[in-house]
Each structure stands twice: as C-alpha cells, then as structure tokens.
Design goal:
By secondary structure, the chain is α+β, with helices and mostly antiparallel strands. It has 10 helices and 5 strands; from the N terminus they run βββαββααααααααα.
C-alpha cells in the first residue's frame, strides 16, 4: 500500500484530483478541496500522507496535508454508510482538529450542513465518533514529517479559502475575489466545493 507521496506537483484539478510526480511516475491523488488551495504551484514539491483505497476494480489514492487528517479520514470510513466520497466531502469542510471539536460538542448541525450529509448521517457521525475523539486527539498531537507546503495560515473564511483555491489554479487574486464575491454572499455554511465551482463558472 502507498502511505505517502513526496514529489513534484504536476497538475491540480478543480475537482480535487492532483498529480504528483515521484521519480518519473505520476500518481493521481484526491485531496480535500480546502487542501487543494494550499498545494504549491506546479512543478513545486509537496508531501501528501496517503490512504490507499482498494476495490475489486480500482485502486484510488486519497492524500492529506497531515497524518492527523489521514487518521480522521480513516475513522470516517469506519462509520456506517460513509464511503470515500462522503468522507472526502467532510474532510473538505473540516480538518482533523475541527472534526474533533464538532464530535466533542456533538454538533450535529455542523455535520448536517456539509453537502451529502443528511440528518440521519449527521446523528450517526456524532454518535459513532464520540468514543473515538481520543484517537483524533492523539493523532493531532503526534509529530508529523514536515511537508514542503506553503507555511502561510489558511484563510479564516469560506470565501477566503475559495479565493486561495482559485489563485492556486492560476487566476489572479483580483479575478478570484471578484468571482467569489459574486457567488459566495454572506452564507458561510455553503460547501467550499460549491462556491469554487460557481466562481469558476463566472470566470469561464
């Protein structure tokens, strides 16, 4: 199984799929959208902590900025009814530390606000992850291998994260800010993926 990728970024897709070149081999990996905006521009180096998901007909790589985020993703996969697609949607909205806080406070509304998570799934997430909060805590406090990612702090708002994602896809900051302003509004509960896609629609 592939546990991590250290190589040069070759491509960053708006759908969350990136390509990392490792010694001449290009690996496709799906990353949370909030992380896509922080991946360095091609052909700069990056380190991803990888979960290899194997099915009878496919092998898919899911990449994360930190080992803690990978632990969170794997815990989500252990929840009844949660597959990789939904787990990635959750990780696109919440970091491992944010997920821990949501579970600790049993904030079902925060889960339900994520695209694809209904009321019943939100309740199941809160309930089944409740006894695993300590695992998220230990993963967050554990040391990780330093990744050659930009040291800048992530944007503090959903609109800011969307702007960063567009800038890293090659648009100017002015273009990105104008596009996001047209579609984001003041609703911070809207999924990051939806804001980015709608903003791209205004730029195309």
């Amino acid at each position: 199984m592939i546990g991590r990728l250290l190589g040069n970024v070759i491509d960053r897709g708006i759908d969350g799929c990136c390509v990392i070149d490792v010694s001449g081999v290009g690996y496709e990996a799906w990353v949370p959208l909030r992380s896509m905006g922080r991946l360095p521009a091609p052909p700069e180096p990056a380190l991803l902590f990888v979960h290899t998901h194997v099915r009878e007909d496919s092998l898919t790589l899911y990449g994360f900025e930190t080992a803690a985020d990978r632990v969170a993703f794997r815990l989500l996969l252990g929840i009844t009814g949660v597959g990789p697609k939904l787990a990635m949607a959750i990780m696109s909205e919440l970091s491992s530390s944010e997920l821990r806080a949501v579970v600790a406070h049993q904030d079902k509304r925060r889960f339900a606000a994520i695209s694809g998570v209904g009321k019943k799934t939100a309740e199941r997430l809160a309930l089944e992850l409740r006894d695993k909060v300590d695992l998220l805590g230990s993963a967050s406090s554990a040391g990780t291998i330093a990744a050659p990612l930009p040291p800048a702090a992530p944007p503090s708002t959903r609109a800011g994260e969307a702007v960063s994602a567009l800038v890293n896809l090659g648009f100017s900051r002015g273009e990105a800010e104008m596009a996001v302003a047209k579609v984001a509004g003041k609703d911070e509960s809207r999924p990051l993926e939806l804001i980015v896609r709608q903003a791209l629609g205004t730029l195309s």
